[in-house]
Amino acid sequence: MHYAIPSPPLEWNAIPLGPLTIHVYALWLLAGIAAAAYLTQRRLTRRGAPSDVVLDIVLWAVPLGIVGARIYHVLTHTQDYFYAGADPWDVVRIWDGGNAIFGSLIGGAVGAWIACRRAGIRFWSFADALAPAMLVAQAIGRGGNWWNHELFGNPTTLPWGLEIDPAAAMFPAGAAAGTLFHPLFLYEALWNLVGAGLLLALDRRYHLRWGRLFALYMVWYGVGRAWLELLRIDPTSDTYLGLPANSAVSIVVALLGIVLFVLRGRQHPEREESVFVPGREPSGNDEPADATTGGAERDGATTGGAETGDAEAGGATSDRAEAQASGSDAAGSADAGSEDADAQARSRE
Hints:
Blueprint: E1 14-17, E2 20-23, H1 24-45, H2 53-76, H3 78-81, H4 101-119, H5 123-147, E3 162-163, E4 180-181, H6 184-206, H7 212-231, E5 239-240, E6 243-244, H8 245-267, H9 289-348
Antiparallel strand pairs: 1-2, 3-4, 5-6
């Protein structure tokens, strides 16, 4: 029996809607972005951030991330875009594939930094909340590579070999029709999902803040991407020091992650108490729902305390009144006793 992972028919890559064309590759990317935004929002709001702040950050980070991803891809695959007779519009045809995650990290980080400053949120607090969600988004986005018949490795006879249409642009020259390839898109998706679970477990156990969880994301993704790129054959990127550009950059990213983890840990050994920039904390009605509820509970406790205090004050007043009444009775008894003694003395005289 023949086992293999089929690829979607090439004609399914685009969905025509009148004058518009929806590219399925873009839908996978949008699904990944939506998942990352949702998960990041849940994580950040649990730490006290407003419920809509992640959407504001996404509106800055995503566009700049897409631009950065494309620029990085083009600059590391120059042989695919700059040659005699090349169509210069290929540089901007993002729907045909070719979006580098490292470029999106750079562009997205710039956008997130701008948005965080505007919202008064610590950039590293946002990055830590994003880290596991980012791996989930990347795992989902790799579905777009599968749909586009790309991101595969050397030929294989393993039962999970990937079928690639010989008519696909990325099909290796000289390979026979029916050749199966290592599904690198699937390997990376699984690597990312395992990494997301690991980061969540570590964060739950050690409460990694101040950018340290994001540093671990850099290490995990960098290591995984470095060895996967060595297996890739569609299309190969430019080389640096004998390594594909993506492998070389992945190694650098992993090393930077280690340095970032150590430095941020030394700079901030204390526990992170707030995701807000000092002086930008919300006030009054701007507090998150959880904080507002807590405040209401605290107000109730204060009110109850006041009522208790009033009761105690009332009791004290009653005690004083009784004491005064007793004192008055005692004084009256003493006066009566004096009058009787005087009467007895007069009678003896």
